[in-house]
Design brief:
Blueprint (H helix, E strand, L loop, with lengths): L1 H23 L6 H8 L5 H4 L2 H4 L1 H8 L6 E5 L5 H10 L4 E7 L9 H9 L7 E6 L13 E7 L15 H11 E12 L18 H10 L3 E6 L24 E7 L5
Parallel strand pairs: 1-2, 1-4, 2-3, 4-5
Antiparallel strand pairs: 5-7, 6-7
Helix pairs in contact: 2-6
Amino acid sequence: MKSTLVTVTVVLAAAVLSAAVTAATPPPANRAIAAAVADAHRPAKDTEQDAVRRPAELVAFSKVKAGDTVMDVWPGGGYWTRLFSPVVGPKGKVYAYVPAEIAGFKSDPVAVAKAVAAEPGRGNVKAVSDPLAQQPPPRMFNTFDVVWTFENYHDFHDSFMKGASVDGFNQAIFKLLKPGGYYVIVDHAAAKGQGLQNTEDLHRIDPATVKAEVEKAGFVLDQESSLLASPADDHTLKVFDPAVKGKTDRFMLRFKKPVNP
């Protein structure tokens, strides 16, 4: 009898441990994602980032699938837009959204987004630019399946955003997403308890602060992953410092809009 109890205890413990590991690990990439990553037409500047960005695992984590309508917030050079485009396919849509507050940057992010949308095979991509917290018109409510932002959420709090409301932005995203839709945020972690203190100097944000802000808008945390975590990063250096660039401690959070909010 004692042996049986020990066996059951060991099996249960193993099951709990397995569940915990699974919860922290993104699902395996499907064929569509694998094909998007392997696309020979992706520019070298994108593929050179693959080792540190883990695109197959991150797109799988985002839950983006064929036919989805996706918003890539602050798309930069178009890295994620180019991956989402073939995954959602001809029946899907990808909006490369540039906050109007950064439209005047020297890099001309709106022009870059439009150039990505104009690339061959990107007929399902549209470049858009509006103020960060502009409330969407009712006709746009419940239209998106996934809203994604990569290493930029911390910037929404910076002074160059001209006082844009992050709470207003999160509320707008909540309205835009379909019930059951996902809001995915990947960013550089600040030290625990730092909150918003390092968004501008180190370009980092406390993941606990992100959770609190997003949940305040009505979202629930669906899953988080430690795939991009880096215990060697002590959170004291700017993310562009050569000592940590590409090796920062990053968090992955996937929030869900409740089906019956």
